[in-house]
Write a structure and sequence with these properties.
single chain, alpha+beta, four-stranded antiparallel beta sheet, 21% strand, DNA-binding
Length: 417
DNA sequence: TCTGGGGTCCTAGGACCC
DNA sequence: TCTGGGGTCCTAGGACCC
């Protein structure tokens, strides 16, 4: 029995989510923008065909939008996460072990002959599309990296592609290394310097040579491209290792109070995520950033804070975070971004009690679950800890956001008969 | 005028130790 | 006069991904 790796990939995922509730946009050009409506982060097939690249700033494609009557949406993550959850719930029901790799992709294992596995993949695609309304593609091969490539072929053909040894070998001299998952701009440049352009060039190298020139990453890539799986579905079982909350501001700011407002907002949300995952954090980082474009490029900074006792208590974290902002802040610098990164997790259940914990800490600790419950019921941010400025100076601009069709009762569509 | 946010893994280099 | 080297642990930052 042969063991295969499948990769399920949702087509133009954010666009497909928006189209679920706007069926009139099927077959029409649609884009989804990043926060602040800054760049294009998802494109319908029609937009890709016009030649709009991924990640391009919105202002550079204004004319194209006008000329082609493009429908535009601000990104709406609550909606995408909810649709994602539905898609992978169906996949999980059909295939017991899956490794969700991103909001719109998951790996899984299939066992059997090439013919039977391909037939199974076609059925899976059909079931998911029928039950969720989201179009998907499936790539199948003997390793994740090849399955990933197969899924790009699938998108251009009937939606499912199984790449077995013979066909894969015949393709190798036609596939550039840059097209391979894990080979970015930097790595492909290094490859080129060594005279390696295609997959065929690379897989013909000695294992020892690859290790010397390209390290463990290169070595792993070599075996993956030689149909020897270098990583199983291990990540499926491993807990998340960090939580990052950050956002660019609408406008730059000189004001430390605005920065504190933003940092405390991100910290509240990150701590809420942490609690919902059942973790404590022992180490976290506060970032203040400047614009990536302009005079203050290197003026930002970050501070890593190590806690005496692991915690998920918003108050305890907040105190430290505000001190960190005081330490990082430089007067006269135009800030454009702030964020919080939580790391070094441990399970909240059965955590050691600290003798240093005072009365207040114990009381607020009991408050946290209640706070999360209220916010879950009434929407994030309905009850807040700490002060909150009246300013929305640091918030992001979202001009084109779709209604919260699936995550907020007031936006649920009604059917009229 | 206008350029995202949320992740993972790896590596180089400093601090420290014997 | 002579002035090690190897190990570990940690962190910041790079590279990559969607």
């Amino acid at each position: 029995m042969q063991k295969w790796v499948g990769l399920l990939d949702c087509n133009n995922f954010f666009v497909s989510c928006e189209r679920l509730f706007r069926p009139d946009l099927k077959g029409k050009p649609v884009m989804v923008l990043s926060s602040n409506d800054g760049c294009v982060v998802a494109r319908s097939q029609e937009i890709k065909d016009i030649g709009v690249p991924m990640g391009v700033p919105l202002f550079q494609v204004k004319d194209i939008i006008k000329d082609n009557n493009v429908a535009i949406f601000s990104s709406h993550f609550a909606l995408y996460r909810d649709v994602s959850r539905r898609v992978f719930a169906v996949l999980r029901r059909e295939i017991n072990a899956i490794e969700q790799y991103s909001i719109d992709e998951a790996f899984f294992v299939l066992v059997g002959s090439a013919e039977s596995v391909e037939a199974r993949a076609l059925v899976l695609k059909d079931i998911i599309e029928r039950e969720t309304g989201i179009p998907v593609s499936i790539g199948v091969a003997r390793s994740k990296t090849i399955a990933k490539y197969a899924s790009t072929v699938a998108k251009k053909t009937k939606g499912v592609k199984l790449l077995a040894a013979k066909e894969w070998k015949s393709l190798q001299s036609k596939i550039e290394l840059r097209e391979i998952w894990g080979v970015g701009a930097k790595t492909s440049q290094t490859f080129r310097k060594n005279g390696l352009l295609t997959v065929a060039d690379f897989v013909n190298l000695e294992k020892r040579t690859v290790k010397t020139l390209f390290g463990v990453v290169g070595e792993r890539l070599l075996s993956e491209l030689n149909e020897i799986s270098a990583s199983g579905l291990t990540r499926a079982l491993e807990p998340q290792k960090s939580i990052l909350h950050t956002r660019s501001f609408k406008e730059t700011t000189l004001d430390i109070e605005v920065l504190k407002d933003a940092v405390s907002h991100h910290l509240r949300e990150a701590a809420e995520d942490l609690r919902s995952m059942g973790f404590l954090t022992k180490s976290f980082t506060v970032y203040l950033g400047t614009s990536r474009h302009g005079d203050y490029l290197l003026q930002g900074g970050s501070k890593n804070l190590i806690l005496l006792t692991p915690t998920n208590d918003t108050f305890t974290l907040m105190k430290e975070a505000m001190k960190a902002v005081d330490g990082l802040y430089k007067a006269g610098v135009l800030y454009k971004k702030a964020g919080v990164l939580l790391t070094d997790f441990s399970p909240a259940a059965g955590a050691q009690l600290s003798f240093l914990e005072d009365e207040r800490e114990i009381r607020t600790k009991q408050l946290m679950p209640l706070l999360d419950l209220v916010n879950k019921k009434n929407g994030r941010g309905s009850v807040l800890l700490g002060t909150r400025l009246k300013t929305d100076e640091w918030q992001s601009a979202q001009m084109k956001k779709s209604p919260a069709y699936t995550t907020n009762w007031k936006d649920v569509p009604t059917v009229k008969a």
